[in-house]
Amino acid sequence: MQPDIICLGEPMLEFNQQPDGLYLAGHGGDTSNCAIAAARQGAPVGYWTRIGTDAFGDSFLRLWADEDIDTSRIEKDGQAHTGIYFVTHGEAGHQFSYFRAGSAASRMAPSDVPEDYIKGARILHVSGISQAISDSAADSVFHAIEVARQAGVTVSYDSNLRLTLWPLDRARAVTHAAMARCHIALPGLDDAEHLTGHTDPDAIVDFYLGLGAEIVALTLGAQGTLVATSGERRRIPGRKVSPVDATGAGDTFDGAFLAEIAAGRNPFAAARYANAAAALSTQGFGAVAPMPRRADVEAFLAEGGEEVI
């Protein structure tokens, strides 16, 4: 199968703290989450990475197969492990603790990138985390972006800043360079404030449009999304819910947004749909389990519901 959307990055096994203090095992990793969210909206999706020859890597292969995600080009590394992380919850929200140093995905190199696979897609999605895990991974993402651009494939990039992985100055340099080569910029407000130095959403959107992005969808948490092109911008309200765990909300937005773009929707309609999908994803614990399918999102939208203005 040649997917319409290809996501590239690092999958990580997740252990998410429950109200009783015990940890629920699940799956995470921002671009893997995005791939699953897009597939649940009906988009043909593929994933590319390197995983360890371990039980955690095998569990991802089963997960992706269950989600109908193409894994035909994924590579196994017998000398490295699949990464893991823990999610804890407190008054300040959720916090992440990562154990990914030396992971199989961090060992990817530009020569590993499946160029023909990317050239056949409609959208390539990568992230700041994809580049932060190692220098060779950063180079691999840049190479994948150039392969996509030369083939006329749309490039999507989520800045997804993790300051535990790299210093802010390097994060700025690398993500700005990548954003300058992307067509769709998917920053979150908190990350963008650190990366751009701006606090006003319109100034942030202008910054990324100025770098060269054709579409910017700046997620504002419960307040929705500011979507802009060179000729128009709109604030798309979020959907009001009572959140339980927002671990995978941003990734769910990305996947739902890209699925709608791949289906031919305009970015404003895509953001309205993706806002609803992201809201629903906060109704359970973990990154993957609560992600809604298309029927759930359409029913939620049909109900109307209260928007956050």
Number of domains: 1
Strand order of the largest sheet: 4-1-9-10-11-12-13-14
Low-pLDDT parts are: none
Task: State the shape.
Answer: globular
Question: What structural class should be given to the helix and strand makeup?
Answer: alpha/beta
- CATH architecture descriptor: 3-Layer(aba) Sandwich
Radius of gyration: 18 Å
Would you count the extended β strands for me? 16
Short description:
The protein contains eleven helices and 16 strands.
Describe the structure.
There is one protein chain. This protein has a single domain (5-308), classed as Ribokinase (UDP-N-acetylmuramoyl-L-alanine:D-glutamate ligase, 3-Layer(aba) Sandwich), CATH 3.40.1190.20. 38% of the residues lie in helices and 23% in strands. The protein has helices at 30-40, 55-66, 115-119, 128-132, 135-150, 168-179, 189-196, 201-211, 249-262, 267-281, 294-302, and strands spanning 5-8, 12-17, 23-28, 45-48, 50-52, 75-77, 83-90, 93-99, 123-127, 154-158, 184-185, 215-219, 225-228, 233-236, 238-239, 307-308. The strands form four sheets. An eight-stranded mixed β-sheet has the order 4-1-9-10-11-12-13-14, sandwiched between helices. It is globular, with a radius of gyration of 18 Å. The model has no long low-confidence stretch (mean pLDDT 94).
